[in-house]
């Protein structure tokens, strides 16, 4: 089978499309014929060797955590899923023609494989950081870097829970944030004052790692009211860095429910082939994404 792999840590140029042995489903797992794989910042952070404590790997290694596809092997002890089912979920080395998933759910009606591949890690992360930051219905949550996949999910999930959301993003994405129910403002000089004009901030999330931790602490008044998923130096300022996943099966079940109720929709901004994995990482690392990027197999 074809698979994207890397034999050393480094930039996008270390990614190679290789011929590899097919993986097989072990106990508690399923294997899918991959139709699409989600492109997440964690993919290139792992490729660079940044966050090996949360994601220990041995080289050479595959790339990718999220995927959607058709079940073609069911491991021992697995119930409730059959060969031929369309599922989305999380596993390993998902930039490939076949991948093993350790958590999955049936794809909601009407969702394409490309759309479904963009949800698993994104929704798990969004649900986790909303919980960890402790924001409650009736309060206001500030989301820095709100137009990407996690931001898109946070805005919609928070609004569904009765939380007011202020989102920051580039000028081109202001209408997009408003379409998701957020009060929107831009980055750049004076952004803290622009946020203050939109309302009091009870909690804040840093999704972009753009060096705004001090300002988020200033706006909330408490480093414990701020969480980052993108700035590895956040703990130096007393802010938690959240990088370890919670229950992915629970997150997938909640995602499926939200999608089915039309309370959650994350658009696919761009699709890439397996051979274009390096370009996908370059674009993901550049930021300014509106929704999701996926690799189509």
TrEMBL record:
Span of domain Enoyl reductase (ER): 10-295
Keyword Magnesium annotated: no
Subcellular location: Cytoplasm
Enzyme class, first EC level, given as a word: oxidoreductase
EC annotation from Swiss-Prot or TrEMBL: 1.-.-.-
Domain of life: Bacteria
Keywords recorded for this protein, A-Z: Cytoplasm, NADP, Oxidoreductase, RNA-binding
GO molecular function: oxidoreductase activity
A Pfam family annotated for this UniProt entry: ADH_N
Classification via InterPro entries: ADH-like_N, ER, GroES-like_sf, NAD(P)-bd_dom_sf, Quin_OxRdtase/zeta-crystal_CS, Zinc-ADH_QOR/CCCR
Subunit structure: Homotetramer.
Protein name: NADP-dependent oxidoreductase
Taxonomic lineage of the native organism: Bacteria, Bacillati, Actinomycetota, Actinomycetes, Kitasatosporales
């Amino acid at each position: 089978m074809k698979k994207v792999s890397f034999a050393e840590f480094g930039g996008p140029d270390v990614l190679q499309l290789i011929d590899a042995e097919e993986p097989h489903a072990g106990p508690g797992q399923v294997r899918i014929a991959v139709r699409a794989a989600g492109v997440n910042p964690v993919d290139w952070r792992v490729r660079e060797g940044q966050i090996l404590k949360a994601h220990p790997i041995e080289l050479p290694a595959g790339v990718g955590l999220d995927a959607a596809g058709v079940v073609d092997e069911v491991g021992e002890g697995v119930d409730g899923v059959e060969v031929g089912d369309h599922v989305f979920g999380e596993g390993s080395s998902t930039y490939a023609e076949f991948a093993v998933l350790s958590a999955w759910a049936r794809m909601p009606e009407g969702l394409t494989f490309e759309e479904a591949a963009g949800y698993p890690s994104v929704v798990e992360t969004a649900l986790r950081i909303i919980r960890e930051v402790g924001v409650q219905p009736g309060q206001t949550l500030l989301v820095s870097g709100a137009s990407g996949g996690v931001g898109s999910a946070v805005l919609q999930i928070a609004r569904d829970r009765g939380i007011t959301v202020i989102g920051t993003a580039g000028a081109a994405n202001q209408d997009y944030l408003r379409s998701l129910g957020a009060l929107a403002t831009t980055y750049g000089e004076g952004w803290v004052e622009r946020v203050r004009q939109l309302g009091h901030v009870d909690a804040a999330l840093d999704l972009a790692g753009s060096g705004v931790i001090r300002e988020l602490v200033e706006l909330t008044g408490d480093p414990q009211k701020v969480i980052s998923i993108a700035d590895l130096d956040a703990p130096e300022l007393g802010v938690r860095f959240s990088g370890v996943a919670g229950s992915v099966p629970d997150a997938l079940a909640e995602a499926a429910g939200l999608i089915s109720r039309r309370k959650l929709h994350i658009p696919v901004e761009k699709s890439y082939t397996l051979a274009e994995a390096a370009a996908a990482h370059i674009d993901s690392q550049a930021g300014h994404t509106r929704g999701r990027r996926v690799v189509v197999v």
